[in-house]
Every structure is written in C-alpha cells, then in structure tokens.
C-alpha cells in the first residue's frame, strides 16, 4: 500500500491535533493547570498567536515559492529569534553566538544552492503544490516568508518566557495547539480539497505527529534552560541530518556543496554543545 499525497494544511491540521491531544493528556495526567498559571497566560496566548501566524504564513510560502527558497527563508528564524531575544529578553549576544548562527546559516545556503543548481529534479518531488509566481507577487511572497520568520523568532522568545513563567514547557505546547488546530482545520476545508488518508498514510501521519510533538516539547524545554541563540542554533541540525540521510539512502547524490554545508552545521552545533550551558540566562 503506497502513501498518499496529503495537502499541506491537512498535514499541519493532523500534526496540530495530535500535539493538542497529547499535551492536554500530559498536563492533565500531571495535575498541571491546562492554561498555565494566571501570571503566565499573557505569554502563552502571545506565543500561540505568533506561532500560529508563523505556521500559516510559512505554509502559504511553501505553496508559492520553490521548496528550497521557502526552506532557506524559514531558517532565518533562529537569527530573528536571537535578535528579538536581545531586545525583549535582554539576552547578551556574544561573538561566539553570532558566529555559530552565521556558520549554520551559511551551511544551509551551501546545501540548497547545490540542490538548486544540480539537483533541481529532487525539488519537484516535494513541489506538487507549488504555484509558479513572478514579479510583484514573488516579492510579496518573500515578504510573507520574512513575516513568518520574524513571528517565528518572536514565538521562540515567548516560548522561553512562557516556559519559565509557568515552570512547565508543556503549557506552551498546549497553548499553541489549542489555537493552531482550529486555524489549520478551517484552512484545510477553505483552501484545499480534503483527502481521506488510507490506513498506511494515516499511520505515517500519526508517527510524524508523535515525532513533531516530541520535538516541540524538547525544544521548549531547551529554550527554558538555555540561551535562545544556542537553542535555536541546534535547529539547523535538521537540514544537515536530512542531507546526510538522503545521501545514505541514495536519494541524494553526494555533492561538494551538500557535504561542506552539512559539515559547517555539524561543527557549529557541536561547538554550541561543547561550550555547554552558561550560567547566564542573562
């Protein structure tokens, strides 16, 4: 039985629904307040709102930009988060932090520049929903992508503030799920044709939802404990590991740009892990 092609909003709706259910059960099971303590609710609501804006605008961009461009623009989010954290949370941004983020982002550029120039066929597999646009519409879509990046960066800072205020990172995950689930559900039926998944596709969506939930919990906990710039830098591992997995499974032909980009990201993240947590949550 082959996996079906599921529309983007429907995929996001499934993941948000799983996140909402699991975070609710976790909070209930541990006797935690569902909506967090009263003094933390403003952070949790703001995190949910900015996170939802970021998600919806990112999906919009994926539908209208080449996949590589959308992903590269989305990975400016850790940089935005570090800048916003400097302004809102008054975190000190050291040269090592700036260097680590720059190294990781250049790694992303190396990887996707090579894919654009020599592996264009690979992109078409994931661009079935891509709508070609040019001129002013293209500029508008890039601006929406930057809006997604900025709101995503603000959301990271609010995750940190909300997790610290509530002393429970799951509260930030639940707050996002309770707003993003109906939002993506409405978009699913308003802008796309609903596809009923078969048993195998449903199983894959369930697994991806569980993995997504785990990633959100660990990331929220990481932001709670660490500096925003360091926690956000680890997100670049997603690109490097995807590239390495593609080469290992022979779906991607090894290339100089891909290998150099992955190496830059791995070096940057390893340096972040090596220096470890500072007693700085400044």
TrEMBL record:
Residues 3-112 form the EamA domain. Coiled coil: none annotated. Its main location: membrane. Keywords: Membrane, Transmembrane, Transmembrane helix. InterPro entries: EamA_dom (IPR000620), EmrE-like (IPR037185). One of its GO terms (cellular component) is membrane. It is found in: Membrane. The chain crosses the membrane at residues 6-27, 48-65, 71-89, 96-116, 136-158, 170-191, 197-220, 256-276. It is a multi-pass membrane protein. PANTHER family: ACYL-MALONYL CONDENSING ENZYME-RELATED, SOLUTE CARRIER FAMILY 35 MEMBER G1. Belongs to the drug/metabolite transporter (DMT) superfamily. Plant drug/metabolite exporter (P-DME) (TC 2.A.7.4) family. This is ACYL-MALONYL CONDENSING ENZYME-RELATED. It comes from Salix viminalis (Common osier).
């Amino acid at each position: 039985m082959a996996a079906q092609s599921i529309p983007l909003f429907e995929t996001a709706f499934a993941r948000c629904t799983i996140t909402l259910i699991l975070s609710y059960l976790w909070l209930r099971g541990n006797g935690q307040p569902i909506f967090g303590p009263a003094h933390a609710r403003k952070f949790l609501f703001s995190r949910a709102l900015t996170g939802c804006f970021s998600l919806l605008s990112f999906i919009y961009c994926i539908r209208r930009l080449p996949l590589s461009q959308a992903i590269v623009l989305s990975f400016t989010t850790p940089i935005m988060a570090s800048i916003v954290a400097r302004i809102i949370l008054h975190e000190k941004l050291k040269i090592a932090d700036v260097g680590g983020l720059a190294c990781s982002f250049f790694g992303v550029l190396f990887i996707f520049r090579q894919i654009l120039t020599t592996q264009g066929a690979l992109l078409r597999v994931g661009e079935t929903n891509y709508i070609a646009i040019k001129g002013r519409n293209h500029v508008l879509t890039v601006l929406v992508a930057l809006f997604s990046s900025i709101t995503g960066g603000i959301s990271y800072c609010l995750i940190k503030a909300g997790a610290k205020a509530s002393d429970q990172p799951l509260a930030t995950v639940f707050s996002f799920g309770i707003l993003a689930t109906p939002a993506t559900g409405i978009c699913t039926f308003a802008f796309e044709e609903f596809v009923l998944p078969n048993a195998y596709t449903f199983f894959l969506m369930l697994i991806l939802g569980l993995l997504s939930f785990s990633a959100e919990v660990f990331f929220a906990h990481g932001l709670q404990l660490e500096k925003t710039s360091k926690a956000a830098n680890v997100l670049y591992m997603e690109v490097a590991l995807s590239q390495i997995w593609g080469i290992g499974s022979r779906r991607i032909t090894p290339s100089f740009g891909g290998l150099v980009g992955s190496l830059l990201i791995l070096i940057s993240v390893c340096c972040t892990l090596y220096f470890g947590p500072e007693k700085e949550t400044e």
